[in-house]
Amino acid sequence: MVLTKTDASLRVHMRKLPSQKPKASGVTDRSSKKAEYSVRVSLQDTGEIFTVPKCRGHTKICELKTALELIAGIPSDCQRLSYLDQGDLVDESTFNFNGIIPRSTITMTIWPYNGLPALVRAAVSGDICKLMIILGRSDSAGSSQPLGTILPSPWPSHRLLPALFVSAHRGKKAVVQFLIANGACVTSQTPQGRNALHAAACQGYTECIDILVAAGAPVHVRDLGGVAPIDAARRVGHQTSVRLLSLSRWQQRTAEVPPRRHLDPSELFAHQHFCSNLRTYLCGPQAQRYMAQMRSRGREPRSQLCPGVTQHGKWHRLHQKHGHLCEGLRATQ
């Protein structure tokens, strides 16, 4: 078979075709991955507007609700999102599917069950009198009892979690104290595994952190993404909250370790084998025995830290010069 010029060029062209592989479905370009934008979320119940950064076209509504827990302070199971109409956005749908464009506004409302919207509004405003009325204690609202008084028949703790989460996120320490005193559980978590300490830490409200930790809120708890309250504070840059949570975490860890009344002799330092009540324990025979014990136990001499404790040091010379005073002082003791 004789190959013509056209056949050879066609064969060369066909050899180059396999290198141009078609893109698989679902794979996006790098340019589309970098196309991040922000959207605004309007909370209709309180009139607040929040900005959610780092959104993309393939971002799901459930991921938006997870981010809004720390941005807006509303648990994900209480959020009801809609866009351009009153229809609810499906959790597994994406921004591209719902036609959400950059810098647009998404509407959020609180699910209207069990008086939850009114409870959240009272927690945001910080009005304890409204909380008393909402909790079914309208007869106590006008009484002479102080606002922090523990009232009878509190709500279940799972119904008080949204109000506690919102009040800690807004820094309403009086509301946080009132809710804890009336049955709110500080260990309760949202569907994303976050407690009220996450909300207070990400906003940097140290007073609310102190109240929650004193009430028994766990500092080491992590959400579904593996983020602890100290990690949430560190991401935002609240160094005061980071230091406070580090101290609280250390205190909770040490509280779990049972103290020992008696130490093993092998765990003692050299100076703990002697009585330090005598005033002359650093000079004379006491100092010589002290140094001898340290060298016999394999420890380095303390001549660099205490130069006067050596045999030819200043304290030894003072003992030779005023030995009768040291002996008289030791005899009196």
TrEMBL record:
CDD domains: Ubl_ANKRD60 (cd17063)
Pfam families per record: Ank_2 (PF12796)
4Fe-4S recorded as keyword: no
InterPro entries: ANKRD_45/46/60, Ankyrin_rpt, Ankyrin_rpt-contain_sf, Ubiquitin-like_domsf
SUPFAM superfamilies named among the record's database cross-references: Ankyrin repeat, Ubiquitin-like
Keyword terms of this UniProt record: ANK repeat
Gene3D superfamilies per UniProt: Ankyrin repeat-containing domain, Phosphatidylinositol 3-kinase Catalytic Subunit, Chain A, domain 1
Signal listed as a keyword: no
Record PROSITE patterns: ANK_REP_REGION (PS50297), ANK_REPEAT (PS50088)
ANK repeats: 192-224
Name of the protein in its database record: Ankyrin repeat domain 60
Organism: Paramormyrops kingsleyae
Species lineage: Eukaryota, Metazoa, Chordata, Craniata, Vertebrata
